[in-house]
Design a protein that fits this description.
The protein is of the alpha+beta class. It contains 17 helices and 29 strands. The N and C termini lie far apart (about 100 Å). The model has no long low-confidence stretch (mean pLDDT about 85).
Length: about 575
């Protein structure tokens, strides 16, 4: 017999495992049928007088609570009927239905008692589903009630969702009856946040007075502990004087002194008191001055220029801190200086000077340095050459040790120009892409790892890019090709370009920015016919807003200062500014 025809030796046949998917899916259905038929039931759960015949084995498999009950020496392990305290009969019916079917029905009117039942019986899926359902269905009419529930039970995801809605709708929420039912700790937590959307701090004071007077005898003694959370330093002297004469203040001896101490403090302005403004730099002077622009209102302010360092990059963090990075090169290392903008004083404060060893082989013409924030952590990035190949070197700033810690490096393809290199923060990740060589990578801070993503291949030379939500928008120098990248699906989509109706031509690269949750672009143009002789005088600076529903750009009738203003980097950062500070200085 030929070797090929010989049967394999029995010891050479490897064992195999098989899984019957139909059995796995059908098992729960069979158990449910037995429950409906009342077959083999060996225990009865009694809740508020209602009886629920069940199977000990099924209950033990589904719930650690029942497993401990039926496998221990507890009396319930031997009883035919188990009385459960602290449960609602209707919720028990839903829980038993879930255990035998795997299907859960949730609604706003019963999600809270259902969560409590699941928490008692240690049903993680039911508990987590209820938490997600509450967080996703927070509305103004229920946000205070849900917040109180989540605060007592310590459901963080629901608490955060409720607080966010309360902050955005504080004026309406504070006038509701539910607001007066808050505990003193819940009240102070709400009014202590910067995100409160109020135009005047007197609104917060009036809400506190209403809360106190709802139950004056029981609450008046809490007033001294509440007052430090009201930002009296943001009120006018007339408002403060009127409050000092208010009956609830005069009735408590210590309240007046608390208010005077707060007036002398420097508590930050509320979100609703600030105005979103675009940070740009003015090239019409010998030095590059930073200024703040509100194109919708035609307002602009210079940020203080004295002692402003010649910086390499600028960023605005999620908590509205403005940072600039100064970098000086020595023979063996780079010296980094980090400055933050002091809103109240309109000055730049140095937060620290750091030395970073030089690991790249580069001359100045090869280096690009960047400053980016991801989840309130600052990252310093330097692009250079290592053994003839481009390399992205990155470090993150440790707020506790005040040091820069090394992160994973990223080698990438040859670069033709540093102008086509971009680093943007989007969500919890950092994105690095070069449009001239069509490469894109994503950095995951939690893993300290880079991964390759789909590059923007339809735009050969991106010159401006900005992140908004979970998307990254970019355009070319002439604003003829615009693309959007969905970071969640790793896909690019083409958007319309410049709706140029006249004879305008772009003279300087466009500047994308996000203002009031809308995508904007600032152009610096000249009229081709008027400047046929090449004088290029009389620049035009139109601003366009992208209308997502119409998939079109529409021009914003904006008033801009008569100066040359450009973005510093691939996009113009936007910060929330308290205008009285600027007007005072």
């Amino acid at each position: 017999m030929a070797a090929a025809d010989q049967e394999p030796h029995v010891s050479e046949v490897l064992p195999s495992s098989y899984q019957d998917e139909s059995y796995l899916h059908g098992f729960l259905g069979t158990v449910g049928d037995l429950q409906k038929a009342g077959a083999f039931q060996d225990v009865v759960l009694e809740v508020e007088g209602r009886r629920f015949p069940c199977h000990r084995l099924v209950l033990s498999a589904a719930s650690p609570y029942f497993r401990a009950m039926f496998t221990s020496d507890m009396a319930e392990s031997r009883q035919k009927t188990v009385v459960l305290q602290g449960l609602d009969a209707g919720m028990c019916n839903d829980i038993v239905s879930y255990i035998y079917s795997g299907t859960l029905h949730v609604s706003l009117d019963k999600v809270q008692p259902l969560y409590q039942a699941a928490d008692l019986l240690q049903l993680d899926y039911v508990r987590d589903t209820c938490s997600s359902y509450m967080a996703m269905n927070v509305v103004r009419s229920t946000c205070v009630d849900l917040y109180k529930f989540a605060d007592v039970i310590s459901i963080d995801i629901v608490r955060k969702a409720c607080l966010q809605l309360i902050h955005r709708n504080f004026v309406e929420v504070a006038s509701s009856d539910e607001f007066c039912s808050l505990s003193v700790n819940q009240l102070t937590e709400i009014i202590s946040h910067d995100e409160l959307d109020v135009k005047e701090e007197t609104t917060v004071w009036e809400a506190v007075v209403r809360w106190v007077q709802h139950s004056r005898e029981d609450r008046l003694h809490h007033l001294p502990s509440i007052l430090p959370h009201i930002r009296f330093n943001l009120m006018t002297s007339d408002d403060t004087a009127a409050i000092l004469e208010h009956p609830v203040v005069k009735e408590d001896p210590g309240s007046s002194e608390v208010i005077r101490n707060v007036v002398r403090s420097h508590l930050k302005p509320r979100l609703g008191m600030t105005t979103e403004m675009v940070l740009m730099y003015n090239t019409s002077r010998s030095s590059n001055d930073i200024f703040l622009l509100n194109p919708r209102e035609g307002e602009y302010f210079n940020v203080i220029e004295e002692d402003l360092p010649v910086f390499r990059d600028m960023t605005v963090t999620s908590d509205n801190n403005i940072y600039i990075l100064e970098s000086k090169e020595s023979e063996d290392e780079n010296q980094l200086s980090l400055f933050t903008y002091n809103h109240a004083e309109n000055v730049w404060d140095e937060t620290g000077v750091y030395s970073i060893s030089k690991e790249l082989e580069y001359g100045r013409e090869f280096l690009k340095e960047l400053l980016v924030e991801v989840d309130q952590t600052l990252y310093y990035l330097a692009v250079g050459i290592n053994e003839g190949r481009p390399l992205l070197q990155m470090r993150k700033h440790n707020q506790h040790t005040k040091q820069w810690q090394e992160c994973s490096k990223l080698p990438f393809n040859f670069i033709y120009s540093l102008a086509y290199i971009f680093t943007l923060s989007c969500g919890s990740h950092l994105y690095f892409f070069t449009s001239d060589t069509c490469t894109m990578h994503r950095y995951d801070p939690s893993q300290d790892q880079w991964s390759k993503q789909t590059p923007p291949i339809n735009i050969p030379k991106v010159c401006s890019a900005v992140a908004m939500g979970t998307e990254i928008f970019c355009t070319d120098r002439d604003f003829t090709q615009t693309m959007v990248y969905d970071t969640e699906s790793d896909r690019w989509q083409k958007l319309p370009g410049w709706p140029n109706q006249g004879n305008l031509a772009v003279d300087h690269h466009p500047s994308l920015f996000v203002l009031e949750n809308q995508l904007h672009i600032l152009l610096t143009c000249y009229d081709v016919q008027e400047d046929a002789a090449g004088s290029f005088e009389g620049y035009i600076r139109p601003i366009y807003v992208y209308d997502r529903s119409a998939d079109a750009w529409r021009e914003l009738r904006a008033t801009l200062p008569d100066i040359k203003c450009y973005a510093y980097g691939p996009c113009s950062p936007v910060a929330r500014i308290y205008l009285p500070y600027l007007k005072e200085t």
